[in-house]
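From the shared-data thread, chain only:
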Amino acid sequence: MRAPAELLGRETLERLERLTIRWSQSFEGRIGGDIVSRYPGVGHEFLDHRHFQPGDDLRAVNWRAFMRLERMFLKLFRAEPRIPVRILIDTSESMACGAPQEADSKFAFACRLAAALCYVGLVRLETIVLQPFSQSLSESFAAHGGRLRYAQAARYISTLETGGGTAFQRPIRDYLMKYRVPGLTFVLSDFLDPSGLDLPLDHLANEGHEVYLLHIAGPDDREPPWRGELELHDPESDEVLRVSLNDESAREYREAYDEFCRSLERHAQRSRAEYLHISTGEALETVLFRQMSATSMTVGKTFDMRGV
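Structure, as tokens:
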């Protein structure tokens, strides 16, 4: 399955202008977290003056002070913290399931959500990395420098395709080797890894990354719409499972799925990560402007909704 050609409409992009990606922890070796920087640099908040020196940017000269004092002073501003924001996109074949129409699949939803996160970060001049994965890491895309780079990022996302199985162990290991500088890591996945998730996800937090697990689930993931004698095909392993499904077994399945989600949430808490279950049955705008924002206002981390 290929990613949607059209990801976000203009109205959605305009609303995303008002969101801000935030983080809670301070990252070693860089200015980060919800602290105010003490270092001068490029920013909006005035910090101090210093004497002008040859080679300084004339645009930063306080010309009003020069007119009064006939001496050149350079305006210094408080440096705005910048950390890398990396978005891991699950491209395993199970992401192509979950809806009768390709446009409503988990993969299509994950691509649109990744595009939204990317746009918010670019507007705020963050460094954005889009990193697809399945059983291994695929070729990534990095962008920074403002909203003008969004078109390139959107074209890159639209080229992604599903394929292969889900296996977090190797992709997370390679991810930590590839990106040694800690930052914000969003994982967009259905987390259907038969080998388990605990150890790989623990490694992300242990290496200093601030992790957000965005669990993308289709309506059929929790509520199977079929009854009777069924043959279920696993798109990743190509195995066929024959089952008999009635109302009682469907109820047991729902309970097992709910426990799976709770186990992911518990693991996220143990790993100092954030977890959010997202249904593709919800509109993307609802997820961005209600679910994720409500969660962030509770924990004070991901999105700042001031001005929305």
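The first strand starts at residue 40 and ends at 51.
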